[in-house]
What does this fold into?
Amino acid sequence: MPDDEKILTLKELCKVLRVHPTTMYKAARQGQIPSFRIGNEWRFRRDAIVQWMTERTTQSSQIRKVAHAGRNGGTVGTS
It folds into this structure.
């Protein structure tokens, strides 16, 4: 299986993201992170997690730009 199609267990994902398993269980149950279940076990596609992290990082960056522009009375550029 190519590395980008790797399936991660909850424990593996927690190690990669450095978060507590309870945090990941909650995010998976609430649909906040791409995941699926096999029986009662959660699984995560590595490529979907990488895309999710990229999207979240981009959104955070855009929010910071808007907040910064608002504090300084400026406009947000599209650079």
